[in-house]
Write a structure and sequence with these properties.
Mean pLDDT: 91
Radius of gyration: 13 Å
Strand order of the largest sheet: 1-2-3-4-6-5
Largest sheet: 6 strands, antiparallel
Number of strands: 6
Shape: globular
Distance between the termini: 38 Å
Order of helices and strands: HHEEEEHEEH
Structural class: alpha+beta
Oligomer: single chain
Length: 121
C-alpha cells in the first residue's frame, strides 16, 4: 500500500500514498476531526496522520493493507464508547474498521469531543 521506509511529511502526502478506497475513508475521518477541533494542528506522528491540540496528541488515524484505524490516543476514550463499538474490532487504544464499513462522521465527532474533554481534564 505505502512504500516502505518512505515517511510522509504531511497528511496530504500520506493520503496520496494510499489507495483510493482507503483514502476516502480516512479523509472523512480527517474532516470530522477538523469539524470538532478546528484549531487542531495536523501532523505526522509515528509515521501516521495525527492531530495535536494545544501541543498535546489528540487522535491518530491511518490506512493499512486490510483495514483503516483510528487511535483516540487513550484507551479510556474507547472504553466510554464500548457499546457503540460492538461491531468493530478494537484493542486497548485502537479502533479498526473496513473502508467498506467506515466510521460515521457523527461517531468520530463524539469520540474526538470526548478526547478533547479528557485532555482538558
Amino acid at each position: 500500500m505505502r512504500p516502505t521506509k518512505q515517511i510522509s511529511k504531511t497528511i496530504d502526502e500520506y493520503l496520496a500514498s494510499v489507495n483510493a478506497h482507503h483514502r476516502d475513508a480516512i479523509q472523512k475521518i480527517r474532516e470530522a476531526i477538523h469539524a470538532v477541533a478546528p484549531n487542531g494542528e495536523e501532523c505526522i506522528s509515528y509515521g501516521i496522520p495525527a492531530f495535536r491540540l494545544n501541543g498535546r496528541s489528540l487522535v491518530f488515524f491511518g490506512a493499512w493493507a486490510n483495514h483503516c484505524a483510528l487511535y483516540p490516543g487513550s484507551s479510556a476514550t474507547l472504553k466510554k464508547f464500548r457499546n457503540e463499538l460492538r461491531n468493530f474490532q478494537t484493542s486497548k487504544g485502537t479502533l479498526r474498521f473496513s473502508p467498506d464499513k467506515p466510521l460515521r462522521a457523527r461517531f468520530v465527532k463524539k469520540l474526538v469531543q470526548a478526547r478533547i474533554a479528557e485532555i482538558r481534564g
